[in-house]
Design goal:
This protein is α+β, with helices and mostly antiparallel strands and 422 residues long. The protein has helices at 58-74, 93-96, 157-164, 173-179, 183-195, 205-215, 219-231, 257-260, 298-316, 331-342, 401-406, and strands spanning 2-8, 17-20, 33-34, 44-45, 47-51, 100-108, 111-119, 124-131, 138-144, 151-152, 196-199, 238-247, 267-280, 286-292, 319-322, 352-357, 373-378, 385-389. The chain has 2 domains: 1-201 and 323-414, Rossmann fold (3-Layer(aba) Sandwich); 204-308, no CATH class.
């Protein structure tokens, strides 16, 4: 479970900002809370929404999460001299040469962890991993290139010292140590690799393929997917989907040579999806009518792409991060997807959802608690992103958050004229 995530000096984010999924004492929408035995007297939120105008930095908050996730999972593959693809805040020359900083606090296997890292394009400047094995904070490792010794360990000194001697300047110790089978880092590494899942706003074909794979995994999973599509009222009665291997030799002659180079072991995987609808024959009797999936609406295809990752997250208790949730979806479909996370009868394994949105109708206290609503705003003086909770404005439970937001009561609105450019 995600507790909080902090970012500093990354893309449009200059000063440190923190997204927290720790709930306040607000008594509304009690079902939207996760009760746990790890945090004393504190509950976690099942979901959180980030809203704000275009170019205010909403997406950059999620890109920061994705950057850290990718860095952790892939860093061990770096060779000597490889650049770390980090993007510091560019509108202040003082920030360009400074490291970008990230910190995430999470719970894995009923233990709280704190992992932080500071990186430049050249090297890892600082890194640390703490955990609370018996409710008390303990060091697994700390790393600071401006300190002698660079590494400090409070456990397994001999083993960790040997591991640290193998870690390049541009490789995370968390990643490298895990690849060398150190168990105390592997738990945290696995949280990044398997629990934290990030989805972008575009129609990534891999999402559709993922749903197809889940459809074919077993009948119980397919039943859940079909139930989700049915509840979304898309008019689809059934789905037929297969993933097939196609040899390069069987491809049409006009198939681009550049794409052929992407083949794995001389084969491509092709996905064939057909949607089944109810129709009638010439005699008025009910029959099944098959459609090519490309003939379905963009909203239907988007919903199909999301329902697989959604169900997988709910089954396994994942943290799902998604940019622009409402893309191509009707408002009620967005509400349906959010409620799957907020409803404890559907979300039995404490999965969490963090999403960005432009849909102000979702800023609704019948759907989200006040502490679940976050806003981003561009600082007009420095061009940097501010991230803050709507709780800071202490709106009453009976306040219309959407109306107050559109009236400018909470900031984070674009400044536009009345539709004139001439």
């Amino acid at each position: 479970m995600l507790i909080e995530f902090s970012i500093e000096n990354y893309r449009s984010i200059k000063e440190k900002v923190t997204l927290s999924l720790v709930s306040t004492s607000d008594k509304s929408l009690d079902n939207n809370l996760i009760r746990n035995t790890v945090l004393k007297n504190e509950n976690l939120l099942r979901s959180a929404a980030i809203s704000g105008p275009n170019a205010s930095g909403k997406t950059n908050v999620l890109l920061a999460i994705n950057f850290l996730n990718t860095l952790v999972v892939m860093s061990h593959k770096n060779q000597k001299g490889d650049k770390i693809k980090v993007s510091p805040f560019m509108l202040d020359e003082n920030c360009v040469s400074k490291p970008s900083r990230f910190e995430v606090i999470f719970i894995k296997d009923d233990v709280k962890y704190i992992y932080g890292v500071a990186v430049t394009t050249e090297k890892v400047v600082e890194e640390y991993l703490y955990y609370y094995p018996k409710g008390r904070k303990a060091i697994i490792f700390t790393r600071d290139i401006n300190r002698d010794p660079i590494y400090i360990f409070n456990t397994d000194h001999t083993k960790q010292k040997f591991i640290s001697s193998k870690i390049l300047d541009n490789v995370l110790y968390l990643s490298g140590a895990t690849q060398l089978n150190y168990d105390k880092t592997s738990v945290a590494f696995d949280w990044f690799k398997y629990v934290l899942q990030v989805i972008g706003p575009t129609d990534d074909p891999r999402l559709q393929d993922f749903t197809v794979e889940m459809l074919n995994k077993d009948e119980s999973i397919k039943a859940l997917i079909m139930k989700g599509l049915s509840e979304a009222d898309l008019g689809i009665d059934d789905i037929s989907a297969q993933i097939k291997d196609v040899s390069i030799d069987d491809l049409p002659s006009e198939f681009p040579d550049e794409l052929k180079k992407l083949a794995v072991n001389g084969t491509f995987q092709t996905v064939n999806i057909k949607s089944i609808h109810r129709g009638i024959d010439v005699n008025g009797n009910e029959q099944k009518v098959s459609f090519e999936f490309e003939d379905e609406s963009e909203g239907t295809r988007r919903m199909f792409s999301l329902i697989g990752p959604w169900i997988e997250a709910l089954i396994n208790g994942h943290v799902l991060i998604i940019d622009e949730l409402e893309t191509k979806l009707h408002h009620k479909l967005s509400v349906f997807l959010i409620n799957l996370f907020n409803n404890p009868t559907q979300n039995k394994n404490n999965a969490q959802l963090v999403f960005t949105t432009h849909n102000t109708n979702l800023l609704n206290q019948d759907l989200l608690r006040r502490d679940q609503i976050w806003l981003t705003e561009k600082n007009p003086k420095f061009g940097s992103t501010d991230l803050y909770s709507i709780v800071e404005f202490s709106p009453r439970n009976d306040k219309n958050i959407q109306r107050g937001y559109l009236a400018g009561r909470y900031g984070a609105l674009p400044f536009v004229n009345d539709g004139r450019i001439f």
